[in-house]
Amino acid sequence: MKFAVPLTVLGTAVVAHFVAAQPGRGLVHEGPYWVQTANGTFSAASASRLRIIASGNVVLQGDPGDRVVYTMNRRMKAGSEEEARTLLRGFEVKTAVRGEWVYLTVTSPASKTVSADVMVTVPRTMREAWVETNGGSVQAYDFEGRLQAQTSGGQVQVDRIGGGATIRTGGGNIVVGRVHGPVKCYSGGGSMKVDSAGGDSWFETAGGEVWVREVLGPIHVSTGAGNVKIGRSTAAVFARTAGGLIEVDSATGIVSAENSGGAIQVNAANGVRCESSSGAIRLRNVDGALRAATAAGNIMAELLAGHPIQDSLLSTNAGDITVLIPSNIAMTVMAWNESAGAGRIVSDFPEIRIRGQALIATPVVAEGAINGGGPVLRLVVKSGSIYLRRGK
Questions:
Q1: Which residues pair with 305 in a beta bridge?
Q2: CB distance 349 to 370 below 8 Å
Q3: CA-based, 20 to 30 A from 100: which of 177, 262, 270, 290?
Q4: What does residue 88 show for φ and ψ, rounded to 5 degrees?
């Protein structure tokens, strides 16, 4: 049975449709469950935004047409067909059009033994879609507008989204394919895997790995515990983890990384700010201002040939510092080793003068200008050695 009721909400005419049941097939007995499929369709020609509210899994699919089509699979754990049909009366589908918004609400009986999974096909040219479910997963594909997806604990997977995406889950994993706009992902404890995003993007999880292949804009990553792997950013990268490896392959802007319990590796960046409580730091093909510090671990920095650095500081409390310096970079080196005789400063550059190495109680100090001098590179070691090597 299906009927329309005119409503008024804040002075706006609303047409709401209440669908008691539009079964596509009868009840089917599958093991301990009874299953029924229901479907419906309505026009969305006058609307540009869609909101779906459900309690089970939701799949959203963009389509060239101008109608919203849904299919709902209702599953009930019941001892008999009569009991299952009684539970069916607790399922309800409501649709409403309010201005530019279309609403699709699916309610289920308040029982852990029932569920309602919904697949919705919508016009792909809609400006926005908002999907919310209390406990199921969310999937969304082939949608040109902006997407918002929220679940209290399920997994979220999206791909081929045109206008950007905001995703929230209470603890599930998030998988993002291609999104042409900015992406914001938040999870209470799941991992995140992102193929590409087209703007300023944020990825935050209370505990899980974060893998991002490419973002055309700045990247912000934070995880309570897990590895962070970033392929490419056309701007700056900000990454933080409480334990795991942070690795950035390429960033056009500065890389700022903070690790409370692991190593940091940057393979190409225009400036770095890296700090680790207990892990090594490796910097390759870097220029600009370099700031790197670790409480326990080695630091290796390979400067980018033909690209001058700015004033920089590398320091470790327990470990070695190795710097590969191309022959065509002009810079001034000031190195300080406080290992009190146990550590050394070794240099391939005769213009860098080393003092105090023979004095056990005196820190070893080295200073000199390479290619006439320039920005100052300061190196500080509390316990370990410093190596200044000639790079290519």
A1: none
A2: yes
A3: 177
A4: -60, -30
Q: Give how far the C-alpha of residue 358 lies from the chain's centroid of Cα atoms, to the nearest Å.
A: 51
**pLDDT tens-digit profile, the chain (392 residues):** 333 333 222 233 334 443 433 444 578 888 888 888 888 988 887 889 999 999 889 999 999 988 899 998 888 888 888 888 888 887 888 888 888 999 999 887 777 677 889 999 999 999 999 999 988 999 999 999 999 999 998 999 999 999 999 999 999 999 999 999 999 999 999 999 999 999 999 999 999 999 999 999 999 999 999 999 999 999 999 999 999 999 999 999 999 999 999 999 999 999 999 999 999 999 999 999 999 999 999 999 999 998 989 999 999 999 999 999 998 999 999 999 998 767 789 999 999 999 876 556 678 999 999 999 999 999 999 999 999 999 87
pTM for the whole thing? 0.89
- Spell out the residues 6+ positions from residue 31 whose beta carbon is closer than 8 angstroms to its own: none
Q: Which of 55, 64, 147 is nearest to 104 (CA)?
A: 55
Residue with tokens 């799949």: 59
Q: Is 220 exposed, middle or buried (0-12, 13-18, 19+ CB in 10 A)?
A: middle
Contact 212, 231 (CB under 8 A): yes
Sign of the dihedral defined by the CA atoms of residues 55, 61, 64, 70, in that order: negative
Q: Which two tokens stand for residue 141?
A: 């594909």
Residues 6 or more apart whose Cβ sits within 8 Å of residue 136? 54, 55, 56, 57, 58, 115, 117, 151, 154
Strand 321-325 and strand 299-303: pairing? parallel
**In 38-127, which ranges are continuous DSSP H helix?**
81-88
Helix (H, G, I), strand (E, B) or coil at 43: strand
208, 226 contact by CB (below 8 A): yes
